[in-house]
Design a protein that fits this description.
Layout lengths: L4 E3 L3 E6 L1 H10 L2 H8 L4 H13 L6 E10 L5 E11 L4 E8 L9 H15 L5 E6 L4 H9 L3 E12 L2 E11 L6
Parallel strand pairs: 5-6
Antiparallel strand pairs: 1-2, 2-3, 3-4, 4-5, 6-8, 7-8
Length: about 180
Amino acid sequence: MEFELLHTERLILRKIDPDVYTWVFTQLNREEQKQFLGFLTDEELDTMFAKYQKGFTCFNKTYLSFQLLDKITGDTIGVCGYHNWYTEHHRAEIGYSLYQDVFKRQGYMSEAFSPIIKYGFEQMQLNRIEAFIGPHNTASIKLVEKNGFTPEGHLKQHYYKNGIMEDSLVFALLLQTYKP
């Protein structure tokens, strides 16, 4: 399978969409799936497979993301992209994660963020990119603010995590204010 790739100084950003997940889960064995997706455990793979089985898309909503691959090792170190992409409304929520603590605080997500935002506006024809961030997640707040997102509100008990309802801060970046 051919993959759409973006390049930064230290990373290769490999586009992942529902078709890629179909290829992963129908053409690769479990060990190859874990390696391709960058998962260390069977539980991580099982969680992703369950999401795949439930479906990433519906009539007006889909998913598009990028794996962050280290240019030197080829290892998958994280993911950044768009979920809750409402195609007919030209808006999506951006999400991101580095898989291990060793990759954090090294600027990898900052490096990936800008080309992925650009891709969203130019290739996906987004008009609005949203970010929902926990109030205590200062690293994520700094990341979105550094990239031109503005705060729009505070949603009470918006997100369920580890048995607790958590708040979310809402940030957005509009095409009309985007500066590449």
